[in-house]
């Protein structure tokens, strides 16, 4: 079986393994590749794999490598929960400057997961530009956490997809107030 290091250059930049039954063992291999040869992989699509908390912890450890240059990560419909959000937030704080797009749609994050992610977004070095949270169980409480994070670090996030969530008037008012900030460059999909 070929390893990531043996793949031709274009394949090293984008790895698409959506709906491939990736488990913790696969996440361990990907994390090892991110640690041992971190400068090539730019895009990783793991959509539709049931990664679980330990798989995301392993993957997040790879993302923490200061030489990791991963810019886009798809984790849509992967069973991401609070523990996975905590691992991702830790990775955003440890190596905040490269990840630009994060897809988390279709996971049961809820407000607590979004609050954990928001802790990573608060870091002034975080350069995340696009965050997909479609159908993730976010309510007003999650909107408050996101609004707080984006007030702390308003200049980088450009696109936030919150469609398919249970946003109330309070959450929408917080996000609307945020959009009035002249430093905020955000477009929100509700």
Automatic annotation (TrEMBL):
<dbReference type="InterPro" id="IPR051261">
    <property type="entry name" value="NLR"/>
</dbReference>
<dbReference type="Pfam" id="PF13516">
    <property type="entry name" value="LRR_6"/>
</dbReference>
<protein>
    <submittedName>
        <fullName>Ribonuclease inhibitor</fullName>
    </submittedName>
</protein>
<dbReference type="InterPro" id="IPR001611">
    <property type="entry name" value="Leu-rich_rpt"/>
</dbReference>
<dbReference type="InterPro" id="IPR032675">
    <property type="entry name" value="LRR_dom_sf"/>
</dbReference>
<keyword id="KW-0677">Repeat</keyword>
<keyword id="KW-0433">Leucine-rich repeat</keyword>
């Amino acid at each position: 079986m070929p390893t990531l290091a043996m793949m031709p250059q274009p394949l090293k930049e984008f790895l698409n393994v959506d709906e491939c039954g990736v488990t913790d063992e696969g996440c361990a291999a990907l994390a090892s590749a991110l640690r041992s040869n971190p400068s090539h992989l730019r895009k990783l699509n793991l959509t539709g794999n049931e990664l679980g908390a330990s798989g995301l912890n392993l993957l997040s450890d790879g993302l923490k490598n200061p030489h990791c240059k991963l810019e886009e990560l798809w984790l849509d419909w992967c069973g991401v929960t609070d523990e996975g959000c905590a691992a991702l937030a830790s990775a955003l704080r440890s190596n905040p400057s490269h990840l630009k797009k994060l897809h988390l749609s279709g996971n049961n994050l809820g407000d607590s997961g979004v609050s954990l992610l928001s802790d990573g977004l608060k870091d002034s070095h975080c350069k995340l530009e696009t965050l997909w949270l479609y159908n993730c169980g976010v309510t007003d409480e999650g909107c408050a956490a996101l609004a707080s994070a984006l007030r702390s670090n308003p200049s980088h996030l450009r696109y936030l997809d919150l469609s398919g969530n249970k946003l109330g008037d309070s959450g929408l008012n917080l996000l609307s107030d945020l959009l009035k900030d002249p430093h905020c460059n955000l477009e929100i999909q509700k």
